[in-house]
Amino acid sequence: MANRVAIIASHTGLETAYKVMNIAMAGAATDAEVQIFFTFDGLDIIRKDAAERLKFAPGNEGFADGFKRANVPPVTDMITMAQESGVRLVACQMTMDVMGLTKDDFIDGVEVAGAMTFLDFAYDADVSLTF
């Protein structure tokens, strides 16, 4: 059985998005099953307008130059690469209901499910992380 990596993304911002996608892609590169559960502010990462919504926290704007120098692709590209690598992106149904969001607010390929679906995956995870 492949290793499993269970990630909860509950915060917004480019710093969080890069952390989440970096770990997810590293897990996928090792043939692990990777699932990211996006909840509350973390839903911003997978919204269609993520490029406009996600910003560096005040004082961290200088990271943009560092990411460019290190040839790190934009987060939106990393999400596409992660999906192509088999990473499952799951939006929290309860949070969507609370925030008045629908599946149409998210990029293609995002699954919508409740916390129990994530827990079913996470119970057998070898690694569990929260960002």
Q: Can you walk through the features of this model?
A:
The protein is of the alpha/beta class. The protein has a single domain (4-130), classed as DsrEFH-like (Hypothetical Protein Ychn, Chain: A), CATH 3.40.1260. Helix content is 40%, strand content 18%. It has helices at 14-29, 50-53, 63-69, 75-84, 93-99, 115-122, and strands at residues 4-9, 33-38, 88-92, 111-113, 127-130. Strands 4-3-2-1-5 form a five-stranded parallel β-sheet, with helices on both faces. Helix 1 (14-29) packs parallel to helix 4 (75-84). The radius of gyration is 14 Å and the shape is globular. 29% of the residues are buried. The model has no long low-confidence stretch (mean pLDDT 96).
Walk across the major sheet and give the strand order. 4-3-2-1-5
What is the CATH-assigned architecture? Answer: 3-Layer(aba) Sandwich
Q: How many β-strand stretches?
A: 5
Query: Structural class, from helix and strand content?
Result: alpha/beta
Radius of gyration: 14 Å
What do we call the CATH homologous superfamily?
Answer: DsrEFH-like
Q: Helix tally?
A: 6
Sheet of most strands:
5 strands, parallel
Count of structural domains: 1
- Helix percent band: 25-40%
State the distance separating the first and last CA atoms. Answer: 26 Å
Q: Residue-averaged pLDDT, rounded? A: 96
What would you call the shape?
Answer: globular
Query: What fraction of the residues are assigned to beta strands by DSSP?
Result: 15-25%
Uncertain stretches: none
What is the CATH C-level name? Alpha Beta
